[in-house]
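Worked example 2:
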Amino acid sequence: MPRRARQSGSSFIAAERPLRAVVAIGSALATTGDHEQLLANVIEAVCRTLGAAAGGFMRYEPATDELVLQNPAFGVHAEGVVGEYRVRVAAGGGNAARVFLSREPYLTNDAARNPRMIQRFIRLFGARNTITVPLVLGERPVGVFHCINKHDGDFDAEDQALLTVLAPLLASCLQSAQNFKAIELERRKLERTMLVHTELTRSVMRGEGIGPLCVTLQRLLGRPVLVLDALRRPLASAAWDGLKPTSVAAIGAALPDGIGLRRISVTDGRRQRRDLYCIGIRLDDEIAGYMLVGEQGTALDSIDVKALEQAALVFAVEILKERSAFEAERRRTGDLLAELMGENTPSSQVRALLDALGIPGAGPWRVVRIGGLRDADMPQSGEHGEADVQWRRALTEILHARGFDAPVLPWTHGFITLLDGEDGERLRDSALLRQIERGLAHALRDTSRPQLAVGVGRPEASAGGLAASLRGAEHALRAARDVANGARIVFVEDLGVYRVLLGGNRAEEHAEFVAQVLGPLFAADRSRRDGRLVDTLRALVAHDFGLAATARALGVHVNTVKYRAQRIGELLQSDPARGTRRLEFELAFKIMDLRHVASEVTVGGRT
């Protein structure tokens, strides 16, 4: 073959080599939309063209000023291994940083002895010889490309020139892979956000409440979830360990004032540190609560952050729904209770009103008022509706667990219920209130056990009587908070003179007090079996319980006074001359001296 022809054939083969490489790289780009697979296909095409064993892209990250090896690289797909290969550009050390800064390719066939090479990475990937070329898009450097370990010997200048020719295309491939990665991340973010929205919205539409919403979010994120109300009290949690009052207090103290996503560290009373993410739940310009998730040793990625932001919106809707429902029920309950306890409500409507309120039994009923011993022990109605919801739910469940079937209903600055038959008497058990308070502290996961005060009205079966029972319960509640000498469950019939003092100078309160104190004596006198017991007790009070002076005043024998005094004690089940009972009788007789009250004392000791 002529020499000219041989030279022409050799030139054709030399020109064909980069063409084949370009075609191979173009095919690799067209075969996948997965960014890691795209890089793997391009690396394989380049290595096949150069006869090299492996290769890898390093991408420049401006935020950290580093060159970072991209997965996969050098035949390795393990992110933990590949991720170790990163070098600081500003330090100017290492072959990759020098090529990036100089924009000049570099070739070595003795990598293990070359001082320019970082030997830790040479050993990590078993590099014998290598070519490194800069990757530049326009005027912007985006990284470098390494090719290592030629199969049939050493790399030469032709290999370096070929890789240099391919470098702009490789830079485009690296950028395309990053674009694919960003698109894939956004797609996953959108899918995750839509999944969270769909799942949480489905729970909201089913009306399951905040608790199931927490469980759903925990399942979607794979992290423990805790939701606090605006008072920083737990509303619900899922997979959250160690939720004790000390932990709740520590979390509440660490919560930020803003509503954006924040990372906080909390150390509870046992010196256990927990890293959390917190985001405020917002209703208009108000913080309605807080949502927290555990870090669990892994930081939130951008997909998790979007999911949490979406979840915060859904929780805000649920809190608003509970508030609205509670306020609507408060108004409805108030209207029903006002009608039930009205003085002019027909008896025929009492049962229907009781059924509408969910109050069982056939009566008579005692009205029971439940409030806080201090203002801080009771949620402030209307300010944080979700706190009222949690309190009411907890009180109802605790009382039901102890055999009280009547619902607990919202009432001004507290709650109200009506107890039928023996249930009211069961409240006299001193241990019951402590059990209720312990149950509340556990259910609300509060930082301290709330202290309650309970006022119990007298038993009544009629609508008019229920109004009086409510007044008595209010007086008893006030006495339990202020003057009951440590007793925090007070029955109106045990108030004594305080019933008059707390009654606001109402004639009906005075008459009820007289009937309560002297009722058994009025009944006995009307039966004509025991004589004039009321007059005898009045005379005894007037003469300081002196028997002789009382007998002279009544014009009877002293033995008659002794007999009547003994009978009075039996009927009243106490010694009328002792303690506060003596004061009660003195006050009752003074009230009877007022004509407008005395005229209201009727048969049976009722007014």
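Residues 3-13, 596-607 have pLDDT under 50 and may be disordered. Residues 507-605 form one domain.
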